[in-house]
Amino acid sequence: MTDVHAGAVHHEETPLTVGVVAESGADERRVALVPKAVASLIGQGLAVVVEPGAGARALLPDASYIAAGATTGDAWSADVVLKVAPPSDAEVARLRRGQTLIGHLAPRDAENQIAALTGAGVQAFAVEAIPRISRAQAMDALSSQANVAGYKAVLVAASESTRFFPMLTTAAGTVKPATVLVLGVGVAGLQALATARRLGARTTGYDVRPEVADQVRSVGASWLDLEIHAAGEGGYARELTAEERVQQQRALEKAIAASDVVITTALVPGRPAPRLVTAAAVEAMRPGSVVVDLAGETGGNCELTEPGQTVTRHGVTICSPMNLPATMPEHSSELYSKNLTALLELIITDSAVAPDFSDEILAAACVSRCLPADREMNEHV
Fold this sequence. Notes:
Layout: E1 2-5, E2 8-11, E3 17-20, H1 35-43, E4 47-50, H2 62-67, E5 71-72, E6 80-82, H3 89-92, E7 100-103, H4 114-119, E8 123-126, H5 141-160, E9 168-170, E10 173-175, E11 179-183, H6 187-198, E12 202-206, H7 213-218, E13 222-223, H8 242-257, E14 261-264, H9 279-284, E15 290-293, E16 310-313, E17 316-319, H10 329-347, E18 348-349, E19 352-353, H11 360-365, E20 366-368, H12 373-379
Parallel strand pairs: 3-4, 3-6, 4-5, 6-7, 7-8, 11-12, 11-14, 12-13, 14-15, 15-17
Antiparallel strand pairs: 1-2, 8-20, 9-10, 16-17, 18-19
Protein name: NAD(P) transhydrogenase subunit alpha part 1
Enzyme class: translocase
Keywords: NAD, NADP, Nucleotide-binding, Translocase
């Protein structure tokens, strides 16, 4: 809008817009921003535009966003676009030079869209690349979503199991509690241990990083010590040597055979998931036992895993659910929304996209660094 008064031309300042797009994946029910967060951003002088139906699969109707102060429309044209899943080719084509994209961008996946985003002149921040340091905890989307996955993995196991989780004493006799072994005790693994214990199971955790033993014990679980230590960078485990893998496999097979439920969460960034549960280990388990493999997206921790499927082998049910956080979209979206709003506080200054790349969080998270369109034009004048 332009006003002319006393020969001067005044331009009404347009607020920075944040766009919330609808996810295109058939199984993706999360949304990047919930209405409560919309109200917070608008209170900071920003405008929020939501693609119609963006929150529908998370049970958040357009009306709830409008009530929070957002408008509905073309969220892909916003200055800052917020997303959950990595963009497709078609979605990258909807972005323009100078925009900022924030979401899961699969920076370690060879099939990612980062080169396309850079070529399109889009500045992009990958939530997977946020460093796991104390100051970044509020922005750590991997951890917030892993909490959901660990919780839901136990419910999947309990649903598939032919046995009770808790000890039951009845007139007909006593039923012993189920034994649950969790392999890989990062955020998802610790949540799985805590949830299984709440259901009454006897729980044991294992990881190649010995420093997490106290965390395992803190949630009431026992620690399985195989005397293999492989702590790596960024809170992840390093890849084991061939000798260590043989030693680990022999010791694990005994522990797996004695368990009613095995939940695996072990991942090594940029590499196929380590094989922790061999076919021989599955065959040694009692019929009716359950394996829930959360590493299916990178090949699986179990040798008999079929990613995205539930199969029965040697009388053992092997589940490899994909994208468990999307099966609990209400709370997953709420947690993810808080992660993104915390990150936006670093990226946006005085209602403008102005990331300070001397900040280690932004330096690590930015996977496509491009100048906003207006600055780029000025620098070429």
